Amino acid sequence: MDFVQNFPCISIILCLFAGIISSGLKDKAAMWLNAALLTVNTLLSAFTLTYTLSIGHPFVYVMGKFPAPWGNEIRAGAPEALMALFFCVIMLLSLFGGRHKIVEEVEEDKTYLYYVLTDLLLSSLLALVYTNDMFTAYVFVEINTIAACGLIMIRQNGRTIEAAVRYMIMSLLGSGMLLLGLCMLYDLTGHLLMSNMQESVALLVANGEYEIPLIVSIVLISVGLCIKSALFPFHAWLPDAYGYSTVSSAAILSSLVSKGYIFLLIKIIYRVIGFDIYRDTRIIDILFVFGLMGMIFGSLSAIRENDVRRMIAYSSVAQIGYIYMGFGMGTQVGMVASIFHILSHAATKSLLFIAAIGLTDVSGGSRKFIELTGSGYRNKWAGIAFTVGSLSMVGIPLFSGFISKLLFSQAAVQNHSKMLPALIVLGISTVLNAIYFMKTVIRIYTPIGQTAYPSVTIKDMQVYAVVLVAFIILNVVLGISSQPVVDIIQQGLATFA
Amino acid sequence: MSKLKPQKEYEKTSAFRFFRWLSGTKDPYVGEVEMHAQEENLLPEETIIERMREAQMRRDKVYDDELNKPAHLFHKGYVIMAVIFCMALVAVLLITVSYLPPSGNAANPVNNVVSKRYIESGLQETGALNTVAGMILTYRAFDTFGETNVLFIATCCVMILLMVDDAILKKQVLLNDRRFEPKNDAILQGTAFILCPIIFIFGIYIILNGHLSPGGGFSGGAIMGSGLILYVSAFGFKKTQRFFDEHIYKIAKITALCMYGLIGTYFYMTGANGIENHIPLGIPGHILSGGIILPIDICVGLEVACTMYAFYALFRRGGL
Q1: Residue A230, by phi and psi: left (phi above 0), alpha (psi -120 to 50) or beta?
Q2: How far is A420 from chain B (nearest CA, A)?
């Protein structure tokens, strides 16, 4: 066995260790430990990715002496390693981009707890990505939920506490449904390991046994994870949670936490239930309809919003709708588009959140549009970055959002029954996206002569500017050379099944 | 005939105190227990009335039926919909349960190779008489490490919400600590004096015998935590801090979790790479047996005890 195969396990364990040790450190030390951890994990994930690409097939790693159906096991393939790499990079950038706000908004003696939470959140995200065992997944879903609540409420004001309570209730409802579905599935299959479960489920379907409990458990798992990832009718917790928490939390929550759950759902669809069986249950039609509704209603809510942070948050609802629309196509191509959109949305949404904070900072801290007028001139880097993010969200070529829209349309064209609604809603949603994002871009570049707010220069915000440039490069790279990434996803999905 | 003691010497004996307590001439609480009455509201009556009137006016405005008709209707519909939805969910789940495999049937899918190996070769492979402990701490040690971290992160979140700054805590120590409770309650202290050692020893026993009998880190730790809580409610935070303050709490928590992590990592790494690990399994049934179960149980027990106590202390006064 090659030594590289240890890396996924090492990166999860390192995160847990870093979280534990950070709880005894001072604020500064915890921050540096967190940064070091993220860098190391980025490297480890990159090594794992190159390794899985070179051997060309996924590998399983037994956690302990006992082989799989008895012991724990993790599995790393190219898409898992790609996701892990992406999560680490985006978390690193989001934390560096919002660091000055963390210092400002979090109580001084409690900043180390912020890093404890992010360390453990990363461990849970990596575990969700790499896991090959449903119960391990559930344990880390718990850690993920609690850590996300903490990240929301660590900026202590009334709004965030209320948002955290909402998030907790909805998220626990989702966890509960996931657990119920898992228990039923365990009762039917007698296994918790994904590959064994898939064999048993295929056998059950072939024999026509336990039809009703099987469908109910699939529905419970799907709905549970949909609630946790804020699909349209379950999105009520989202705008407050993303809109009022400190900016790094908002970026991490929108681009990583909800995506972790979606990736888990993809793994469950492919590796536990089996894609064909899942498609035949017709649940994908419901996901499709909800996805389409989310694309429209999320954008409509965003247009109505007068608060730039909440507007970006509502735009997340629309983008999550895109991802579930891809699920709803019921084809491999649609799934590839969804996974690509997970990456592209993660890169873009965190960029928008980080850029928006630069704009509101030079507008006296106000998030109202009227105050933001001309802020693109006062903070040039944030203005450029926000523009890039907006263009990517709308789907202009050169940026990552264009590729995902292209992939979605290709997927729609190949699916005859769903082509028309998918294409129409895609068009409407693009126009709506353009309305609210371009409105903001025009607003921040509307010159006003006299202003009470001072401009900032590059000297005041070197780290911030570097982070923004990194985000822009990430977006453009995803937009220009998307083919390798799409290839990795396609090959990975082939090995999933 | 016994010799009568002089009156002064007799008054010192416990028999005298007992008979005096029995006859009711002395109340054990008077002079012994410090009672704090609730502080009276210092606001003059007029401001209270004024404030009530203001609140009433606001309430009249907010709850005006004419203005709030749509909101009322929405709320009514919402409640009805919620009830219907919940009933539907309950019905669906109940119906589903009736289709699940009957419990206790030998032909159920759950009775397969997995549980067979746990039961048949669990003793040889883990060295633990308690099969459940062998399952959660050896076969699936990684899941349990995650589960322990759930407790850890929950404490972190409670700390974010309730932890009060040290300086404020010291200022408010008299106010917050036992504001509405009697100090030095004789009955509670007497009970705690007898019970606390027993509870601690029982908790340690359960932790150390986790691999031999029902119990283990989680249950034993919970018992030890409850012992700590009993001690602190009887004797107050000042006395507890002589042996368990925030510093010691941090050291105990971090050591326990790190030890678990190190043992776990050693176990995963050696197992996955096919290297022999040097953890002896011992003779099943002996106290020093069970491989990694006993040290992990001790770590989990420490962490659970710390968590229980930290929850209590944080909710009670916002600091350890």
Answers
A1: left
A2: 32
Which of B157, B164, B249, B281 is the best substitution to test chain A (most A C-beta atoms within 10 A)?
Answer: B157
Residues A36 and A154 both lie in one domain = yes
A179–B contact, CB cutoff 8 A: no
Provide the pLDDT confidence category of residue B1 given band limits of 50, 70 and 90. Answer: very low
- Burial label for A57, CB within 10 Å (0-12, 13-18, 19+), is exposed
Where in the sequence is the domain holding A89, given as residue range(s)? Answer: 1-268
Q: Is some CB atom of chain A closer than 8 A to the CB atom of B128?
A: no
DSSP structure class, residue B181: S
Task: Indicate the residue among A206, A240, A268 that finishes a domain.
Answer: A268
**Is A274 a domain residue?**
no
Same domain assignment for residues A458 and A339: yes
Neighbours of A357 (CB within 10 A): 25
What is the residue type of A49? L
pTM above 0.95, yes or no: no
Return the amino acid letter for B310.
Answer: A
ipTM for the assembly: 0.90
- Asked if A293 has any chain B CB less than 8 Å from its own CB, the reply is no
Phi, psi for A59 (deg, rounded to 5): -125, 150
CA distance A313 to B242: 49
B140 touches A: beta carbon within 8 Å: yes
Q: What is the pLDDT of residue B33?
A: 67
Q: A143–B95: do the CB atoms touch at under 8 Å?
A: no
Render pLDDT for A127-154 as a digit per residue (tens, 0 to 9): 999 998 899 999 999 999 999 999 999 8
- Selecting from B101, B261, B274 the residue whose C-beta is nearest the C-beta of A20 gives B261
CA B97 to chain centre: 33
Q: Does B117 touch chain A (CB under 8 A)?
A: yes
Query: Quick one: A288 and A156 in the same domain?
Result: no
User: Given this model, what pLDDT does residue B37 score?
Assistant: 61
| Model confidence pLDDT, tens digit, residues A175-218 | 999 999 999 999 888 888 888 888 899 999 998 888 899 999 99
| Model confidence pLDDT, tens digit, residues A216-270 | 999 999 999 999 998 988 888 899 999 899 999 999 999 899 999 999 999 999 9
Residue A61: phi, psi to the nearest 5?
A: -130, 120
Question: A6 in a domain, yes or no?
Answer: yes
Interchain pair B112, A62: CB under 8 A: no
How near does any CA of chain A get to the CA of B150, in Å? 5
What's the CA gap between A138 and A267, in Å, rounded? 13
DSSP type of residue A272: I
Q: Which residues in chain A touch residue B82, judged by CB atoms under 8 angstroms apart?
A: none
Question: Where does a domain end: A217, A244, A268?
Answer: A268
In a 3-state reduction of DSSP, which class is residue A75? strand
